[in-house]
Amino acid sequence: MRALAARILSRVTAEGCSLTAALDEALPTIAQANDRSFVQALCFGVLRWYHRLDFILRQLAPKPIRDEEIRLLALLGLYQLEYSRVKPHAAVAETVSAAGRKTWAKPLLNGVLRSFQRDREALLERAEADETAAHSHPAWLIGKIRKNWPQDYPAILQQANRQPPMTLRVNLRQGGREDYLGVLQAAGIAARICRFAEAGLILENPVAVEKLPGFDSGRVSVQDEAAQLASTLLDLRPGHRVLDVCAAPGGKTLQILESHPDLGEMVAVDIAVDRLDKIRENLARGRLAATVLGGDAAQPSNWWDGRPFDRILVDAPCSATGVIRRHPDIKLLRKPEDIAQLQTLQRRILEAMHPVLAEGGLLVYATCSILKQENETQIESFLRDHPEFSEIPIQAEWGRTSGPGRQILTGEYDMDGFFYARLAK
User: Fold this and answer.
1) Which of 226, 248, 301, 362 could form a disulfide with 270 if both were Cys (CB 3.0 to 4.6 A apart)?
2) Residue ranges per domain, the chain?
3) At what angle do helices 139-148 and 336-353 cross, to 10 degrees?
4) Cβ distance 375 to 406 under 8 Å?
5) Per residue in 115-170, pLDDT tens?
6) 48-67 pLDDT tens trace
7) Which residues are catalytic?
8) Which secondary-structure segment (H or E) carries 113?
9) Phi, psi for residue 310 in degrees, rounded to 5
10) How many angstroms separate the first and last alpha carbons of the chain?
11) Which band of pLDDT confidence, cut at 50, 70 and 90, is reported for residue 72?
12) How many other C-beta atoms lie within 10 A of the C-beta of residue 287?
């Protein structure tokens, strides 16, 4: 299993593949559920603590390890010794054994892991003195978050390294939240009610979705509480024509339909044609109907029928810096130059939605970013250039005012980092 975990991780570190995609390819090849969970936990753990583990490895290895899978096996071993419940002797022995036919690597791995056990305190002290290792984030991202949130950045980085809760959204069309809470308790699954999302529940411990009662029939979906707030900001009314752009995998589309079954039409658009099937699968699971279209949000002429929408949700492509705790590979895959490129794309989408929104209509702009240039600065710039749009302040107990919008920082009230702004035309 450790050798497979190293191969999965190499897809991320050497090929730039997302961890989600790499796991989706590999996990179905593992027969036992416990083994699948173990491999997944190893991969998430190594990436969560990658910059710290890599720093420690560089202190221990006499010279850089050129073989990527062996280097990753060393990181896997260090992760097990420091952060997992695997017994130390098993962590060392099984990691060394995972080198397989690369016999040259076995004494190297054994030496690295034994040295860590022997010199652990000194190595950890050295890691704490190095900012990148201490926060387990790349230096450029630490600097950007510090600049954006000088008082909050240590807490943000700490929260980004924690395992997030598994949060559910109950389909209130199929029964109340309290009723489903009772169903969970009867199934031996402990949960508590979310503070802000009216349909939200937080599990005490994550479970496989197939173990959630009613999941296959759309009774419940997995969605962070911060993401669940989107539909409440749209001020939906019967008969409204609603557009969700950048909609895949469809969680917000489903929520809108679940909470407002009397809409005139719900349209979901995404540029990734291969992800449209995921939207359709979720709609089918929830027994809901929407118009699902493949298309570029920045070029609506290729898919829009010319009829304006009363409400538009722009779930904009972003750096995803607010969901690093769920996707730790972001710390490796995202590059400094990506932010300006994403900012340009976000502005193109906002400009494209201008003619698509009806007079008197409402647009909600959302990102899972905590960087101001993608959020408040983006919306301030758009409002300056478009006096026909005005900000509708968000009055809420969650988050904080951030320019013409509202920002949730990573981990606040157990939520992902999210930004929302409401614009009236």
Assistant:
1) 248
2) 2-133, 167-222, 226-424
3) 50
4) no
5) 999 999 999 999 999 999 999 999 999 999 999 999 999 999 999 999 999 999 99
6) 999 999 999 999 998 899 99
7) 368
8) helix 105-128
9) -75, -35
10) 55
11) very high
12) 12
